[in-house]
TrEMBL record:
Cellular component per GO, a single term: periplasmic space
GO molecular function (one): peptide transmembrane transporter activity
GO biological process, one term: peptide transport
Protein name: Peptide ABC transporter substrate-binding protein
Organism field: Microlunatus endophyticus
Record-annotated Solute-binding protein family domain positions: 80-462
PANTHER family attached to this UniProt entry: ABC TRANSPORTER SUBSTRATE-BINDING PROTEIN (PTHR30290:SF83), PERIPLASMIC BINDING COMPONENT OF ABC TRANSPORTER (PTHR30290)
Keywords: Signal
Signal peptide: 1-21
InterPro entries referenced in this protein's UniProt entry, alphabetically: Peptide/Ni-bd, SBP_5, SBP_5_dom
Length: 541
């Protein structure tokens, strides 16, 4: 699976957005008061390219939501799946063959027709090992993916003659294609709302690099002027070619990228913007700063973990990992974070199949038991315990030190801290060069217990760089995937969670919610199924 909303390697606030619905927006030059203009500022560095097939971060996919449309989506009001670009998504009896029919007459924003071939060709490109595109793993269940992406010994390069097409993809006609999976997967239709499966136009497929900053989308908006220059606001206007449903109210959308969430917050208080995320540093003051103008997400956005390096011999014992878990006071840590609830499970609250406390005694705060268990397991022989934290987060070091203090006091061990950027920590983890624990978060891409478990627990999952692999867990996930009865499938997925908890490869810490401030001129969408959306704000004046 993919990791589209991965808050990798560090504890950070959920993506903060700033929006202005004013015709006099500081970022816009359109003085027509009748034009509904929405300026969204993301508290993150600007992306260096726009390509949802090669991007699984919150920032890039937030932009992609405006430029591209998914095959299906979750209805924010009901939680049910609805067609968007798709006219129908039909599985066979055992969910191994899926026939996808798109609506006729659709176009890319340059006027070129949108066809089934665009999906097949784009999915093939993304799956090619040589490209190294981020969302390749999304297509791993389609037949032929394993041959295109063979498992190789450490340090060995892939051969140059690997297949370039998925054997399980087939164009039926201009608007219909078929995906044959290597294993039954009853959730496949639900996954198609992920924008990592968006199509790329024929022009872009010929030379993707040439279109990194001038994407040809097929969604609600298009880049104003056709080309975006990194370092400037990303200005989008409604695409005249989009004929799909669920269009937001804004006529024009401007994305601002403000790396410092506190700057965005202060801009809101100064009246310069109309929508902003509340950074963790302002959790104690936002209600007084903006009374009556804040909204809290109905369900958690991220479930956060302490992630041990399973390749390191000091962390290979489940008892060591359980000792670390028992030394953490989740209630104290959650209060420090702010809008957080202690987490003792791998499934997010609000998802069908959630059960509180699946971690059992291993997640109970028990300093004496933790110290005893660590001693029985042999302790740490490689020196002080290291905690990696992100230097591009205002609070990451604070939270890391809070956990470190608990380890020092409750386990009587030495702790040191290593500060690096999130991308540096991710790269080190991918190369198995992190020699300490780190903190990361996961938020599901579609509301399913499967998407809370598979990405972090499956042997070859994308958010499993530690290499955790329990074949019995994999077998249960596969059994759940093959079960067409959703309630029976949930029960099987729960068995997989219970079994993995005995290993505790990742240590659950807490679940966070996002809080946003908004002006009186807009009302952001707030759904327990899809979260808070600035793009789909309602204009109240």
């Amino acid at each position: 699976m993919h990791k589209s909303r991965l808050a990798a390697a560090s504890i950070i606030a959920a993506t903060a957005l700033v929006a202005s619905a004013c015709g006099s927006s500081t970022s816009g030059s359109n003085s027509d008061a009748s034009v509904k203009k929405l300026t969204i500022a993301d508290a993150a560095e600007a992306p260096t390219y726009i390509n949802p097939l090669n991007d699984n971060g919150a920032t890039g996919l937030g932009v992609a939501q405006a430029l591209f449309a998914p095959l299906v989506r979750t209805n924010p009001a009901t939680g049910k799946v609805q067609n968007v670009i798709a006219q129908s998504v039909t599985p066979n009896s055992d969910s191994t063959v899926w026939t996808i029919k798109i609506k006729p007459g659709l176009q890319f924003d340059d006027g070129e027709p949108l066809t089934a071939q665009d999906y097949v060709a784009s999915w093939n490109m993304t799956s090619q090992e040589a490209r190294g595109w981020t969302n390749s793993g999304f297509f791993a269940k389609i037949k032929g993916w394993d041959k295109m992406n063979p498992l190789l010994p450490e340090g060995k390069k892939a051969p140059s003659n690997l297949p370039k097409k998925l054997s399980g993809l087939k164009v039926i006609d201009k608007t219909t294609f078929q995906a044959t999976l290597s294993v039954p997967f009853s959730q496949f239709g639900l996954t198609l709302q992920y924008l990592g499966a968006a199509p790329m136009s024929a022009k872009e497929r010929k030379d993707p690099d040439a279109y990194k900053l001038k994407p040809i989308g097929m969604g609600l908006y298009k880049v104003k002027g056709g080309v975006w220059k990194v370092g400037t606001d990303l200005d989008l206007v409604k695409s005249p070619t989009y004929k799909g449903p669920f269009a937001p109210q804004a006529d024009e959308v401007v994305f601002k990228f403000i790396p410092n969430a506190e700057t965005a917050y202060n801009d809101f208080l100064a009246g310069d913007v109309d929508f902003t995320g509340v950074p963790s540093t302002k959790m104690g003051s936002y209600q007084q700063d903006a009374p009556g103008q804040y909204v809290t997400s109905q369900t958690g956005d991220f479930l956060w973990y302490l992630i041990p390096p399973l390749w390191d011999k000091d962390y290979q014992s489940a008892d060591v990992r359980k000792a670390l878990s028992m030394a953490i006071n989740r209630t104290t840590l959650s209060k420090l974070v702010g809008t957080a609830t202690p987490a003792t499970e791998y499934v997010q609250r609000g998802v069908d199949g959630f059960r509180e406390g699946t971690c059992g005694t291993a997640c109970n705060y028990d300093p004496a038991g933790a110290k005893s268990l660590l001693q029985q397991a042999g302790g740490f022989k490689g020196g002080p315990l290291k905690i990696y934290y992100s230097t591009d987060s205002a609070t990451s070091q604070t939270y890391a030190q809070a956990i470190g203090n608990m380890f020092r006091q409750n386990l009587d061990i030495k702790v040191t801290y290593v500060g690096k950027t999130s991308s540096e920590i991710n790269d080190l983890a991918s190369d198995h060069k992190v020699d300490g624990v780190r903190i990361g978060g996961w938020g599901f891409d579609y509301p399913s217990i499967e998407d809370d478990l598979t990405p972090i627990l499956a042997c070859q999952a994308d958010y499993n760089p530690e290499g955790y692999c329990n074949k019995k867990v994999d077998a249960l996930l596969a059994e759940g995937n093959s079960q067409s009865d959703s309630q029976k499938a949930i029960g099987i997925y729960q068995q997989a969670e219970d079994l993995a908890m005995k290993d505790l490869p990742n240590i659950p810490l807490y679940e966070t919610k996002s809080i946003y401030l908004y002006s009186k001129r807009i009302k952001p969408l707030n759904s327990k199924y899809t979260g808070i959306s600035a793009l789909y704000s309602t204009f109240t004046s």
